[in-house]
């Protein structure tokens, strides 16, 4: 089935279409979940919950925009909801109260594969990782991030800057 047929099948609650849609997108959506929670068991739970939401709300997909983008938003929102409920984002600090931030050379990043970079992102503290994923990978603005996470825009900027600097430091350490 092509994507439009899968969507139509899922809208009519066809189990075969639902299974095929799951098999087509599960690996990519699991990767999205893992970027936020860094724990395979929790990521699998989020994946399952996400697909339940997809199948319950697929009728709201209007066909405008990318279907995969629509799916991704459901999984990102599910991961963010989990992080808010777990209260792991409480440790965020405002830029005004942070130490001076220094810029570092990022030329070492050329030596990394995408898998190595994703592994380094997963090692970031949860607040840094969440903001980094939302801003650098998902394309949210700092205003959208602040609203989604219940933090200030300056805290979002601070978390992103710190995440980027920590990644640069780790990359330099790996490739000295």
UniProtKB/TrEMBL annotation:
Gene3D superfamilies (alphabetical): 1.10.1740.10, Winged helix-like DNA-binding domain superfamily/Winged helix DNA-binding domain
Domain RNA polymerase sigma factor 70 region 4 type, first and last residues per copy: 116-167
Pfam families tied to this protein: Sigma70_r2 (PF04542), Sigma70_r4_2 (PF08281)
Domain RNA polymerase sigma-70 region, chain residue ranges per copy: 21-86
Taxonomy, superkingdom: Bacteria
Alphabetical UniProt keywords: Sigma factor, Transcription, Transcription regulation
Membrane spanning stretches: none
InterPro entries recorded: RNA_pol_sigma-70-like (IPR039425), RNA_pol_sigma-70_dom (IPR014284), RNA_pol_sigma70_r2 (IPR007627), RNA_pol_sigma70_r4_t2 (IPR013249), RNA_pol_sigma_r2 (IPR013325), RNA_pol_sigma_r3/r4-like (IPR013324), WH-like_DNA-bd_sf (IPR036388)
Family per record: Belongs to the sigma-70 factor family. ECF subfamily.
NCBIfam families, per the entry: sigma70-ECF
Name of the protein this chain belongs to: Sigma-70 family RNA polymerase sigma factor
Species annotation: Parabacteroides absconsus
């Amino acid at each position: 089935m092509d994507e439009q047929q899968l969507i139509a099948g899922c809208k009519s609650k066809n189990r075969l279409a639902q299974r095929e849609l799951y098999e087509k997108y599960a690996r990519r959506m699991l990767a999205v979940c893992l970027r936020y929670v860094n724990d395979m068991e929790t990521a699998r739970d989020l994946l399952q919950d996400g697909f339940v939401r997809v199948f319950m709300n697929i009728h709201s997909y209007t066909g405008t925009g990318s279907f995969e983008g629509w799916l991704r938003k459901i999984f990102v929102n599910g991961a963010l909801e989990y992080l808010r409920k777990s209260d792991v984002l409480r440790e965020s600090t405002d830029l005004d109260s942070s130490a001076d931030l220094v810029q570092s050379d990022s030329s070492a990043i050329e030596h990394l594969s995408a898998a190595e970079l994703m592994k380094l992102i997963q090692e970031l503290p949860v607040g840094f990782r969440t903001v980094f994923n939302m801003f650098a990978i998902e394309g949210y603005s700092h205003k959208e991030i602040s609203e989604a996470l219940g933090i200030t825009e300056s805290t979002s900027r601070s978390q992103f800057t710190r995440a980027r600097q920590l990644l640069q430091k780790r990359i330099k350490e790996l490739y000295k």
